[in-house]
Amino acid sequence: MKQQQRKALALAAVLALSSLAAAAQAPARPAARGAQAAHAAADAGYKAYARRDYAAAMAAAQRAVQLAPARRDYWLLLAQSQLALGRADEAEQSLNRAAQASGDDAALARARADWSRSRALVAGEAMYKALQAGDVRGAITQGTEAVRLAPENAAFRLVLVHALLRDNRHADAERVATETIALLPDSAAPLALRAYARQGLNRPSDAAADLERALQQRGVQPAHQRQLRLLAADLALAQGNAQRAADLLAAFPADDAEAASRRELARQRIAGTAPAYALRAPGIDCSNVEASQTCILLAAAVPPQPGFANATAAYRALEERDVQRALAQARLATQASPGQRDWHLMHMNAALAAGEQAEAERAATAALALGADPVVLAQRSSIRRGLGDVAGANADAEAALQSGALPPQREAALLAELGRTREARARLATLPPTAQTPAANLDMAYLSTRVGDDKAAREAFARADAAGGLPPTSLLDAGYAAMRSHQDGEAVAYFKRAIDAVNGLQLKMEPQMVYDTRRTIADVSRKWGVLASITMRNGSGVQPGFGQVGGGGGRRTWQAGAEAYYRPWGFRNGQFVELFARGFATLDDQAGGNTGGDSFQGGVGVRWKPLTAQNLVLSFSRVFGPNVNDDWLAQIGYSLDYGTDLRVDARSWWTSRMYAEIGHYLENGNTYGIAQAMLGRSYLVGGDGRTVLFPHGFVGVEYSSNDPVAKTSAGIGPGVSLRRWFREDTYNAPRSYWDLTLQYRARLSGDDRMRGLFLNGLLSY
């Protein structure tokens, strides 16, 4: 308002100058030397006033009125000079003397109007300062004086009504507001203020009618229209008409905090859980009154509910991921305001983050008691399923689905939980990918993973990544989705980014999980490999993977074999196909059998691992050699291992290796089989964590349909293995190892093939 005061004073100065200049130009015929001196003094005063030297103007005017006290124009010059210097009381006295002198009545009237406006501005400024200081009654006194002196000033009137409302002087507020409506018939502000005054006078119908008229006024700026709707919602809440308040607030966006707090109050009032709403006087902003010709009303802040500080602290703690503090504050907030539904939901989220599933279920139930919500029902369904309450979870899921108000992705998730996978996939298929935000794509990716649609999951992760919405915590999930979709290169790229995120401190993973990720990279990216072995045992019989090999009897033999393989179509989520070529020969045979090139047995073929989660391998190859009947060999093998890879989170761990294989030669009709198991504990030895000692127990059995002595042989005994891993880098776990195994086997049954000392050296590259 200081700017308004300066403008008004400037206007008064211009008016004064024009009136005084007109008076100065009137012909003067001084009858004596004193009159001439008075005229000269007045002329000097006018000139000083024109150059804004008000002190000189006042001094000159004082000389002029002393010399010619009967000249009204001289007294008006003095009054205007005093007024310009802020000496309003002296200016009033000069105006009174001017009224006693003869002269231009219109000029006197204009001067009095200037004086009144100046006094009104002073009173108005005092009113504003009093309000800022919280002195409402002082503001009313000053505002009343400002309105009396400047009855045409709408801003003074509106601020006075605001002050009267704050002092609960509703009758006076209604009277001044009514006068202001007559002055500003097209303004919404005085109507809204009168509505609040009439509500205070217990006239709710008149109050509602006034605010409805205010809302219907034309030309109201959007910012003011928003405030009027908030004021109308507050009035409706105070009158107990919560549905009217909800209707008024429906047009506001969801992220409008002022509207959201009132919407929650309306919901609580409808549910009967909220206390009575006390109407508070609106704020007022008259900073743009010169341009808009009216002031803007500001809806009062909604009083904080009990527990508000705790709820705010809980929200902040959740953002900071301090889940224990969030949970503690959420408990306090919901205890203080059990009718605050949003706080129960926040309590639920805090409990979930803290792993308190039962508490989260109670919080969700409390929120649902305050109003049905399909989304919360769906959330409680997941919580109850995690608690083992399948019946309750299914009931919640069915109820949420029947509402028809869930987002399609949430519907698909519930259908998946209910085991209706086909329906879930069909629901997801209705969503257009181009219409999804990065966050929605991320949700879609996880939901697609949940229903087993790996292709859709991979595509959704890729869309989220392309839009910059794939967080580091989702890199592994995206990689596994790509891997299950047989996109090996894409999967490896995601896994490597996850490793980079760990190294860059953007992602936290346990060391063993980092190692397992590197192992996955090594497995998925492998295209070829080489295996080589050398074995010392009694006789020959069956060699795992190679089938029946040369030699016989129970005499000591040394045998060696090698194989190279290639995966033409990559890893294929563990369902790979390998082309292989192998050779096997006896180096020494105490029984006098073939050795060297005469004992060579080769094979080329293909094998297939048809299952991702089970290590079942089907193989078909052509076997040949100088002293071997060329034949077709069909094989099936199965292994089940535990703890056979490295561990970086422990120095020792239990390990088991179990393997079974059956082979059949199609042309000569021979069949063989082998089954063996090793159980023990692995120990890291050495300082680099890449050498493993594996003491174990062994049990095994071999079968050969064409053995002339005993078709079956079984043995048992202790053993020890030493394995050294190598060939690793930042992204790949060790891809190669050599292994030395020494066992002593006691015969359980059959001939001596499975008895005595057994030595095996293996290289996997």
Automatic annotation (TrEMBL):
Signal peptide range = 1-23
Question: Do you know which Pfam families this protein is assigned to?
Answer: NfrA_C
Alphabetized UniProt keyword annotations: Signal
* Keyword check for Transcription regulation: no
Where does the Bacteriophage N4 adsorption protein A C-terminal domain start and stop, copy by copy?
592-759
**What's the protein called, per UniProt?**
Tetratricopeptide repeat protein
Q: What high-level taxonomic lineage is stated for the organism?
A: Bacteria, Pseudomonadati, Pseudomonadota, Betaproteobacteria, Burkholderiales
